[in-house]
């Protein structure tokens, strides 16, 4: 098992509802702990990660700040609707990033959509998202 959501593994951010030149969405999948994507103040906010092929997701770990409620959804190809994998309400954190792990239950996915439904402030940040699993064999 390895991190399927790394840009060096071929993963791409194909949609993000906000972007800042200093804190672009690609920062979430660059493998670094000190970079992040920031939202622009309105909710909901979302981003979609596209994997290089169909994958089997074991766990998803997200490191973020000021996120109150989020939803994770998957689709098994580009033409199918997204299905909810998990919905979580995160506890606030004063100075450290929030960290949450979600079981993927070995669900098959080509795309992962993360919807930040609300935050503890006008802006929030996602430092890193790791998707642990395996590529499906064809």
Automatic annotation (TrEMBL):
<dbReference type="Pfam" id="PF00754">
    <property type="entry name" value="F5_F8_type_C"/>
</dbReference>
<feature type="domain" description="F5/8 type C">
    <location>
        <begin position="16"/>
        <end position="124"/>
    </location>
</feature>
<dbReference type="GO" id="GO:0042073">
    <property type="term" value="P:intraciliary transport"/>
</dbReference>
<dbReference type="GO" id="GO:0005929">
    <property type="term" value="C:cilium"/>
</dbReference>
<dbReference type="GO" id="GO:0030992">
    <property type="term" value="C:intraciliary transport particle B"/>
</dbReference>
<dbReference type="InterPro" id="IPR033558">
    <property type="entry name" value="IFT25"/>
</dbReference>
<dbReference type="GO" id="GO:0005813">
    <property type="term" value="C:centrosome"/>
</dbReference>
<dbReference type="InterPro" id="IPR008979">
    <property type="entry name" value="Galactose-bd-like_sf"/>
</dbReference>
<dbReference type="InterPro" id="IPR000421">
    <property type="entry name" value="FA58C"/>
</dbReference>
<protein>
    <recommendedName>
        <fullName>F5/8 type C domain-containing protein</fullName>
    </recommendedName>
</protein>
